[in-house]
Amino acid sequence: MALQVPLGPSRFSSMSMLASHPSSSIFEPFQISPAVIPHNPFPLESLPPMYPSFPTTYIPVLTGRCPVNFSAISSIMDKTASDCSQPLAALVGNVVCCPQFSSFLHIFQGYYSLSSDNLVLQNVVADDCFKDIINILGSRGANSSIPTICSVKSSNLTAGSCPVKDIMTFERKVNTSKLLEACSTVDPLKECCRPVCQPAIKDAALEISVSQFLMSDNKNTAGQPISIDVLNDCKGVVYSWISRKLSSDAANTAFRILSACKVNRVCPLDFKQPSEVINACRNVAAPGPSCCSLLNTYIAGIQKQMLITNRQAIICATVFGSMLQKGGVITDIYGLCDVDLKDFSLQGCLLRSLPADVVFDNSTGFSFTCDLSDNIAAPWPSSPSISSLSLCGPEMSLPALPTSETLGNPGLRGAGLDHLVPALLFFIISTFLYGDM
């Protein structure tokens, strides 16, 4: 069982800091199989905090008005349900769940278009199909709050404000052979920095966007810029066309890589003004208990928000460091207080920057792989400005891995880069079952 290789709590974590009730109904009671719960020799004490999580499945009630054979796309629905599993969706939403759900919606559009002349759904049909999608995913263990977590609505299945909806018009206006060549196989190592598919999608979206002006009788619209909303809606139409040309697996792989490029460009964490940290660390030249204590406490709160990737952690560390520098903290307090990249991610687990999935196993429940779990120092920004930060330049790469001489703890941290972690982490159990918010 994966429980035999638990991921220890981060340096910044503690029971008192993590014990709290959920702020919403996102985290429902966990359904634990009695067969996997070990015997507790001390019944008056709390059970050990990590147990596998298993989904509660049931037969969904559908509208009966969505003209799609869902069994034909069952495999990709299973993957989406797993990636958006009930206890984890909010914690992996930015990196895993929402990218996968978005990819599935594009694939669903493409599959729908195989028996239609249109690449998108009409509003009424989109409403019914979207309800069925959420119900089916929920019946397979997915979180029912996916639309809220990912800010997605049934209108995402329609063309929105894009003027081109039908296949014939699309293929007449777009260089489809060029589009398919660029996006049929997306290179995960090159696409984010030397994009091929992304500009092809943008060009195709632009081509069908201009139809809005060509079909308009208003001559005053000539020369006006196309709105970003129209362009984005037309990108959805382009994704749908790609989906109908590729297999579900190929389309999903391509779309997840494109999402990863977008996800890894920004830090998804919410940083509140670190006034106490700035006041305690402004004139620090050497490690001080007050400065490091307040810094660690602040980052412990940030860490609880979600799981992030190693590249996101670099950006987050830079963003936070820039905030501190603008407040007058000049000294590298990351180095003074031993702050690592992993300290910015939940439970000290950094996900890979490449697309990852939550894995379900009948024995261990949900699990995922942590990357770069060793002590990799958080980079202190060279200046308060982050406008020049780039993860694509030849001079910028992930920090070098520590050698055996630099590893302070030869235990779990020295066990390698990747750890398969049971999804019900210490954080989830202690925070959402035992404490007060």
Blueprint (SSEs and pairs):
Blueprint: H1 15-18, H2 74-83, H3 93-113, H4 123-139, H5 146-150, H6 167-173, H7 176-183, H8 197-209, H9 211-214, H10 228-245, H11 248-263, H12 275-281, H13 289-303, E1 308-309, H14 310-326, H15 333-336, E2 350-351, E3 359-361, E4 365-370, E5 419-422, H16 426-434
Parallel strand pairs: 1-2
Antiparallel strand pairs: 3-4, 4-5
Strand percent estimate: under 5%
Biggest sheet, strands in spatial order? Answer: 3-4-5
Number of strands: 5
Secondary-structure content class: mainly alpha
Number of structurally distinct domains: 2
Q: Give the rounded overall mean pLDDT.
A: 80
Alpha carbon gyration radius? 24 Å
SSE string, helix = H, strand = E?
Answer: HHHHHHHHHHHHHEHHEEEEH
Task: Please explain how this structure is put together.
By secondary structure, this protein is mainly alpha-helical. It has two domains: 70-263, no CATH class; 275-352 and 363-434, no CATH class. It has 16 helices and five strands. It has helices spanning 15-18, 74-83, 93-113, 123-139, 146-150, 167-173, 176-183, 197-209, 211-214, 228-245, 248-263, 275-281, 289-303, 310-326, 333-336, 426-434, and strands at residues 308-309, 350-351, 359-361, 365-370, 419-422. The strands form two sheets. It has a three-stranded antiparallel sheet with strand order 3-4-5, with no helix packed on it. A two-stranded parallel sheet has the order 1-2. A hairpin with a 3-residue loop joins β3 (359-361) and β4. α3 (93-113) crosses α10 (228-245), α7 (176-183) runs antiparallel to α8 (197-209) and α12 (275-281) packs antiparallel against α13. It is globular, with a radius of gyration of 24 Å.
